[in-house]
Every structure is written in C-alpha cells, then in structure tokens.
Design goal:
The chain is α+β, with helices and mostly antiparallel strands. The chain has 6 domains: 6-96, 2-Layer Sandwich (Phosphorylase Kinase, domain 1), CATH 3.30.200.20; 100-327, Transferase(Phosphotransferase), domain 1 (Orthogonal Bundle), CATH 1.10.510.10; 375-437, Trypsin Inhibitor V, Chain A, CATH 3.30.10.20; 442-510, Trypsin Inhibitor V, Chain A (2-Layer Sandwich); 515-587, Trypsin Inhibitor V, Chain A, CATH 3.30.10; 591-649, Trypsin Inhibitor V, Chain A (2-Layer Sandwich), CATH 3.30.10. The strands form 11 sheets. A 6-stranded antiparallel β-sheet has the order 1-2-3-4-6-5, with helices on one face. Strands 18-22-19-20 form a 4-stranded mixed β-sheet, with no helix packed on it. A hairpin with a 4-residue loop joins strand 3 (30-37) and strand 4. Helix 6 (196-212) packs antiparallel against helix 8 (246-255) and helix 8 runs antiparallel to helix 9. 32% of the residues are buried.
Length: 650
C-alpha cells in the first residue's frame, strides 16, 4: 500500500496517535511534519521516510537499530527521539519539536557570526557529539540544516542515527557513500570509513562557515567538491580576515586536518581544545565578526536537506560513487577526443585482465559472503552468565571482550548489555563487548561512634554513602552533638564491614542533658513531694527538718533550689537526674512558759503574748488587787507556741 500524498497527511492520525497539523519541509530522505501526540498531549516532529528507502532490507534493519541508539541518546543539545515505527509502508520517527530555526536560516539572514557566538554554537554541537561518541554513535551528517536553535537560543543537533542508517544501506547496495559534500571528511570520501573524527571534521567546517560566511570548497559538481576535501587543506579563517586570532586558525586546522590520524579524534578532544582557545581571547576579540561576503552562497533550507546537490554548492546529502572518488575522477571527458583503434594484443591483454579480475572477484565474494569476512547476526547474550555468553560467542566465531560494572538490578556475573546489539550483522571474528555485572557495589562502613554529628556526616560522604537521616534526643551521659547511636534498619552498624552503596544510616544525635524546671513543693507532704520530683525526672534529697510557725508538721517547709518562676533571673537550671533538697516542717516550735506570779494582769498578758502563747486570765473578786497568784502550766514548762496559759488574778 502506497503512502498517501504528502498534503493529504494534514489532519491525519499517524499510527493512531500523532495528529499531523502542518508540513515543515520535504527532502530527499523524508518529509517532516509538525504534529500533536494525542496520548501525551505534546507537540512533536514527525519525520516520514520516503517509501523507496524501505525497499532495502538492510536499510530497514539499520534504521530500526540506529533509531533505538538515537533514542537512548539523552542530552540537552540533542533533538530527542521519542518513537519509531512503520505506517502505510513508510518508516517514521517521532522527535522532539524544536520551535525556532536552523543554523542555515541564521547564516542566510546574518551572513557571518561573531567569534563568540560561533564558538558557543560549535561548543554546544561538540557537547552533543562528545556524548554520542562515548556511546559509539557517529552522526555523519553535521551541517547547518541539522543544527537547530530554539527561541531561547538553545542549540540542538538533529538527525542522530538517521544518516548512518541511510548511508550504510546506500554503500552496501549501490557502492555509493551518502554525505553532505560541503562537510564530508576525506576518509569518508575515499574509504567510506566512519569514525568520530568524521563528525569533528564536519563541525570544523561548520565553525569555518560561521566565522567567514563561506564554505571552504565549492565546485560545479559534487564530486569536484568532494575531491577538494581529499586533496586540499581547509584554508585558515585568517585568510579572509587578517585580524583573526591565531587560536582560531589553530582550532579550525586541528578539527579539519585531512589526515584523520592528525585530526582531533572525537567530540571530547575537540571540546577541550575549543575551550582552551576561547579562554585565551579577550571580550573585544570575541565580539568581532567578519563582514559577510557579497558572493556568499547558501544551500536551500528545505525539508531535511537530503536532495541531490544543485549547481554551485549545496548543503544537501548526496550519494557519491565510491569508485570514482577513490580513483580521483572529477573531470568530464575532453571534447573532440577521438577513440583510438584497438589492437588485438591490447584486446587479448584486456581479456586476460578481466579473467583475473573475475577470479579475484570470486575469491572476494566467497570471503565476504561465506568465508571469515561474511556478515552474521550477533547472538543475544544479555541476561546470560559470563561463562554462558563467552561460550555462545565462541561458538558463533566472535571474540568476547568483558567489561565489568556494578549494577543494582542485574545479579553478579550476569551480562548487563552487549555491543554490538543482539541481531546486529557484523563480520565473523569481530569483537563483541560484554558488560558483566559485578553485583551491587559495596562500600566499607566507617567508624562513626567516636565522631560528632558533622564528623559522621563527612565520614559517610567520604565513603560515598547517601546522606544519613538524623534525629536528635536528650541524653544524660552523651554530650551535645555526639552520637547516641548509628543504625541501619534498627540494627547498630558494624564499622569496617561492607554495606550496600545505597545504605542510608540513621544517626541519633545527643542534645545533651534535658533541662527540667524546678517544681513547687511547698506545703506538700513527703510522699507528694517525691512523686512530683520523680515525674519531673529529679531526685529528692532531704535536709534536716525544721520548726515552722506557719507550715504544719510533715509538710515541706523549704526546698533548694527554689521553685521555677517564669521570667525570673534568679531561676536555677536543673537537668534530668539532678537532686532537689527538701526540708520537712516539724510544726510549731517549743517555748518556755513565762513566770506570771506577782505581775499585774496587764503585765502578765503582755508577757504571755510575747512568748507566742495565748493568755487565759481568771479574775477572783473581780481582781481588786490586780495581782496574779496562780498559773498553769507552771513557769518554765516547755510548750508548743500557740498553746494557752491560764492564770488567776486577785
């Protein structure tokens, strides 16, 4: 079933999920649309590959594999790949929608960019490439059309994985190399070799073009441009502006060296040199820009820019004949050249050469189709033990290379991942990298108990354990800030023992002794006073009992320290476990009864009252003599203060 015409896709629901709203562009490999993901309610870009590309089984396999690799590439400077699938016999990619413009549109509008902005854009591109190269993913089609700049100025590289899938398919089936000739590396032209250095070369051309407003090589035919990359060095940017700093010339030269062995090998190396070059430039120099050339030529920014090159120069991706490139053929036949007469000896020699070529070709065919050089699928050994995986790869005539990594999910000695991926077709005898689990990473627990709070936190951080949980409690013997306990799941830790690197230690930190306000014990009996102190966490200590004129016997007459009074500066701070001295009342004190006999009634009354006793006079004959004759108790008798003294007045 043929896909519906491009315009009829508007308003359609791709794969029952992505509603197409607008066509963004069309190129030689695909048509790009703006769409809305109805499931997640977000804007996306839909790239639908042209149907003729799906005719190659190699392309289908590579497209799926590269799309998966690109989807795993997560970086702020990479246009994210969300999904891929087959719809109406055409493959599609669902990508992050970037609202903004590509670098080609920016260059068309401004001609050139300042050194500062050129370096900043190149730095973002190299950050994306460095991440890809670490994952052994090569872009192979770096060009202004694949560098997006959103409305906030964030740079994102598009089409990771796509160029590789298409170019592998083209080279395998047609003997051609797919590439954008304005940015193609020499080794990709001559040998079809695709390494991270290919991306560095293209990024260097990109930097050159932003700085000068020109592409380094131009020509009437794509093959002429490609051969210039092979045979000529990229000019120094200073050839267009004498004031251009030597640091910039050196950076461009290092990124675009014709010999890939002399070139910066990957995005990480290029990024380091760029930052070093930038650090040596002052703000005034960074702000300068080359005047836009009047004869500047820019490719048409349409679709994904994969159409064949037009006359002059183009940034589109094209298929170049490998045989012509390797032989250096770049010129059309000379007009008017007459064919020479063929002589029989020459014909014989040609036949012999053809026969030899056929024999050699047959040998090569056997070697690459059936012999050691043949391509076979890589077995799936993910989830197998290392021993099982090695045995499987040995049997399939691959060379296993084991790399060990810790894993929180995959058990020890089990294969976490492999590279190449399962079912990838590679030559027999190729190396297959196996990442084998070491199990959960364990760290040695430091001795925490002799440390204070900050020391324990620092020791755990140094041992690379997660941040501990911390509780604080009062403690009678552990000083404030020191550890009361260090536990894991309620059990005390064992210093020097291995623990899971995810272990969270619970630290119980002392706040010191708990402060306790002194309770008021006045007029409490002994039992009540003890109960109150016990509840407050204090201990009763008894002093010698005392007589009291006001406090009944058996009650608290005095305590030390005194009871806490809110806001009083005289409060004494006690802590749980401290003692309070309690004094119990003996009641009223004893006094001697005064001698009243012979005194007048007035004198007797005053003396009794003065002694703290109560006078009780009895008058005989109305006390005409006003003299005390008798008293009870007798003078000198010891009685409690407040008792009554009776006496008779005559």
């Amino acid at each position: 079933m043929t896909p519906p015409p491009a315009d009829t896709l508007l308003g359609r629901l791709v794969d029952g999920r992505y509603e197409v709203t607008q066509r963004i562009g069309r190129g030689g490999m695909a048509t790009v649309y703006h769409a809305v993901d109805r499931r997640l309610d977000r804007e996306v870009a839909v790239k639908i590959m042209h149907a003729h590309l799906a005719e190659s089984d190699d392309f289908v396999a590579r497209f799926r594999r590269e799309a998966r690799a690109a989807a795993r590439l997560s970086h702020p400077n990479v246009v994210g790949v969300y999904d891929q699938g087959l719809w109406h016999d055409s493959f599609y990619l669902i990508m992050e929608y970037v609202e903004g413009e590509d670098l080609r549109a920016r260059l068309r509008r401004e001609g050139t960019l300042s050194i500062d902005e050129s370096l900043a854009i190149t730095e973002n591109v190299l950050e994306a490439l460095a991440t890809a190269h670490r994952r052994e993913l090569v872009h192979r089609d770096i060009k202004p059309e694949n560098v997006m700049i959103d409305t906030e100025g964030i740079v994102k590289v598009a089409d990771f994985g796509l160029a590789r899938a298409v170019s592998d398919s083209s080279a395998a089936t047609t003997g051609t190399v797919l590439g954008t000739v304005a940015y193609v590396a020499p080794e990709l032209v001559t040998y079809g070799e695709s390494t991270p250095a290919v991306d560095v070369y293209a990024a260097g051309i990109l930097l050159y073009e932003m700085l000068t407003g020109r592409q380094p090589f131009t020509g009437d035919m794509p093959i002429n441009v490609a051969m210039q990359h092979v045979n000529e060095s990229v000019p120094a940017p200073s050839s267009h502006a004498r004031w251009m700093p030597a640091e910039i010339d050196s950076l461009v030269a290092a990124m675009t060296a014709r010999n890939p062995g002399e070139r910066l090998q990957n995005g990480t190396a290029a990024l380091a040199l760029l930052r070093q070059a930038r650090s040596g430039l002052d703000e005034r120099t960074l702000a300068r820009r080359v005047a836009a050339p009047e004869d500047a030529t820019y490719a048409t920014a349409s679709g994904d820019h994969t159409a064949p090159l037009s006359r002059k120069v183009s940034s589109g991706t094209v298929a170049l004949p490998v045989d012509d490139l390797r032989s250096g053929a770049a010129k059309a036949p000379t007009k008017g050249a007459r064919p020479r007469r063929r002589r029989r000896p020459l014909a014989t020699a040609i036949l012999v050469l053809l026969a030899l070529a056929a024999m050699i070709g047959g040998g090569f065919a056997w070697y690459f189709l059936y012999g050691p050089g043949s391509f076979v699928p890589v077995p799936d050994v993910e989830g197998a033990t290392s021993q099982e995986a090695v045995a499987t790869l040995d049997e399939a005539e691959f060379v296993p290379k084991i790399i060990q990594e810790y894993s929180d999910e995959v058990p020890e000695d089990v294969v976490i991942s492999q590279n190449p991926e399962p079912d990838s077709e590679v030559r027999k005898g190729s190396e297959v990298e196996l990442v084998v689990s070491l199990g959960v990473e364990m760290f040695t627990m430091p001795d925490l108990m002799p440390l204070d709070r900050d020391g324990a936190i620092a020791a755990l951080a140094e041992a690379t354990f997660p941040e501990p949980t911390i509780t604080e409690n009062w403690h009678e013997s552990v000083p404030a800030g020191r550890l009361i306990s260090a536990t894991v799941d309620g059990e005390p830790i064992t210093a020097g023992e291995p623990y899971d690197h995810r272990t969270v230690v619970a630290l119980d930190v002392s706040k010191g002794r708990e402060p306790v306000p002194v309770p008021d014990l006045s007029n409490r009996d002994r039992a009540e006073a003890e109960a109150i102190l016990q509840e407050a966490g204090l201990v009763a200590q008894y002093g010698l009992p005392e007589y009291s004129e006001t406090v009944p016997e058996g009650k608290v007459v005095r305590q030390s320290p005194a009871a806490h009074v809110e806001g009083s500066p005289d409060n004494i701070q006690l802590y749980r476990g401290d003692t309070v001295t309690v004094v119990i009342s003996l009641g009223q004190p004893y006094v001697a009864v005064p001698d009243l006999v012979g005194l007048s009634s007035q004198e007797a009354e005053e003396l009794v009252i003065e002694a703290g006793l109560v006078p009780d006079p009895d008058y005989m004959w109305r006390g005409v003599l006003d003299t005390v004759r008798f008293q009870r108790p007798d003078a000198g008798t010891m009685v409690r203060m407040g008792e009554t003294v009776r006496y008779t007045v005559f």
